[in-house]
Structures are given as structure tokens and as C-alpha cells.
Write a structure and sequence with these properties.
68 residues; mainly alpha; 0% strand; elongated; SDR_fam; SDR family oxidoreductase; NAD(P)-bd_dom_sf
Length: 68
């Protein structure tokens, strides 16, 4: 999909991923999550500091609104 949008607006793939895609997906934070952000949560949950966290859902989607 980013490739299609890229051709439509004559811009770079990075512009599409950084600016257009988050807007099209209604992401509140205005950007796609970075892999390092996911890794930070995984590292925290695997650490002793998270020993008392059980059965929780952790959503890392930048506040993306669900389309209904």
C-alpha cells in the first residue's frame, strides 16, 4: 500500500511511512512505532521489575483508532 500511495503523490517511501501512512491510519501519536519501542517493552516485561505484572495486554499502536 505505501508503494501505491508513493506513486500517487510523487514522494519518497520515507515520506509515506513517516507522514502519510500514520495520517491515513488515524494514529494519534502521528507516527508508526519503532521496533526498539517494542523491544523496550519486551525487555521490561522480562525483567525482575515487572515481576508483579500478570495477565495484562500491552497495546503499542500509537493510539491508532479502530475503524468500524
Amino acid at each position: 500500500m505505501p508503494e501505491i500511495r508513493q506513486r500517487e503523490v510523487s514522494t519518497t517511501r520515507d515520506d509515506v511511512m513517516d507522514r502519510l501512512l500514520p495520517e491515513m491510519m488515524s494514529i494519534s501519536s502521528g507516527r508508526i512505532s519503532e521496533p526498539e519501542e517494542i523491544a523496550d517493552l519486551v525487555a521490561f516485561l522480562a525483567s525482575p521489575r515487572a515481576a508483579n505484572i500478570t495477565g495484562a495486554d500491552h497495546i503499542i499502536d500509537g493510539g491508532m483508532n479502530k475503524i468500524t
